């Protein structure tokens, strides 16, 4: 059974930082692309960042470019999202996911975590 568990969400002031973590069990992440998403009104999951198999350069959404950095550690079965210079509009539920393909091309992610809440407010 594949299980993804996010952690690190919290209440933080504007301009602050958070580091989200995602722990994967029941699967070897190495051959697959992994990504972070957040829930937006619709509701739908909006892509934040993705890293292809082989830990290449992350693909990052324009609205977080320069502020958020994604990384992965396949040996630990983990992925991370470092979030800096947080804004109130960054608030939301953040999810990690695994796509059963080696690249980030495509929106068909198979495994999802339950989400971790990020709230940016003064």
**Share of residues in strands:** over 45%
- Biggest β-sheet description: 7 strands, mixed
> Helicity range of the residues?
under 10%
Radius of gyration equals 13 Å
Please give the alpha-carbon distance between the first and last residues.
Answer: 40 Å
Could you list the spans in which at least 5 consecutive residues all have pLDDT below 50?
none
H/E element order: EEEEEEEEEEE
Average of the residue pLDDT scores: 95
Total strands: the figure is 11
Shape label = globular
Structural class: mainly beta
Total number of helices: 0
Can you characterise this structure?
The chain is mainly beta and 122 residues long. Helix content is 0%, strand content 49%. The radius of gyration is 13 Å and the shape is globular.
Question: Could you list some keywords that capture this structure?
Answer:
mainly beta, 49% strand, 4-stranded antiparallel beta sheet, 122 residues
Secondary structure layout:
Layout: E1 3-7, E2 11-12, E3 18-25, E4 33-40, E5 44-51, E6 59-60, E7 68-73, E8 78-83, E9 92-99, E10 111-112, E11 116-120
Parallel strand pairs: 2-11
Antiparallel strand pairs: 1-3, 3-8, 4-5, 4-9, 5-6, 7-8, 9-10, 9-11
Summarize this structure briefly.
This protein is mainly β and about 120 residues long. About 0% of the residues lie in helices and about 50% in strands. The radius of gyration is 13 Å and the shape is globular.
